[in-house]
């Protein structure tokens, strides 16, 4: 534990953020290429890195929205594990997020650790992955999300996240994604979806829709023209419509994970969430 006393925790610089993303890739988390840029635009002070003699050994992100915050990119370099660095930097992030309802998405085997830190399980999610047909699809109701009044997108996203993510969504639409689309019925948003390039194929998220048909149209529209369009979807296990769509597209279930909060779980319609924006 002596080495732990030498741990210096600082806000991450842009160079450090690149290191954080590289650590996530080594852990097999498949982050999007520009995820860190969009999340840093939401909260420029929310990335932390632990240094020993100037060398990075651990990291975590604690990103604030309006009332909800998220913990992510929680990694300790393998040769430095078991020395207390992880709990120190995790607690540092939690102190930074004091007063927020903090959300974390983690593998079910790690859920007890988060529960011991005050988190409560909200729901179990499932991940599906596989290749999707990238042929051209035309639908007059689908348009670029950037062409829709931003307040409409903001309000629609808040229905399923239970919080306003103003700065994050602005970055997500314009920087974090390859494509970001909306399904508009006259002036009403009936669906919203985004896709971004990642280490292995593409990550889809968010993908919200009023019906499974709209979700499928948006998903196929996001995938069109992309070579080797292997996608990843993360959605609540209780969303049987999401499962049916994933199986129709011949996607394969990979694993399950949990969503936990320090406060009460938001009351949102999980059956209309076809993929989260996982950090």
The gist of it:
The protein is of the alpha+beta class and 279 residues long. Helix content is 30%, strand content 34%.
Architecture overview:
The protein has 279 residues and is α+β, with helices and mostly antiparallel strands. 30% of the residues lie in helices and 34% in strands. It has 2 domains: 3-99, Gcn5-related N-acetyltransferase (GNAT) (Aminopeptidase, 3-Layer(aba) Sandwich), CATH 3.40.630; 127-275, 3-Layer(aba) Sandwich (Aminopeptidase), CATH 3.40.630. Strands 1, 2, 3, 4, 5, 6, 7, 8, 9, 10, 11, 12 and 13 form a 13-stranded mixed beta sheet that branches. Helix 2 (35-42) runs antiparallel to helix 6 (166-176). The chain is globular. The chain starts with 7 loop residues before the first strand and ends with a strand. The relative contact order is 0.17. The mean pLDDT is 92.
Which labels suit this protein?
279 residues; Aminopeptidase; 2 domains; 8 helices; 13 strands; 30% helix; globular; acyltransferase activity, transferring groups other than amino-acyl groups; Acyl/Acetyltrans_Enzymes; YitH/HolE_GNAT; N-acetyltransferase domain-containing protein
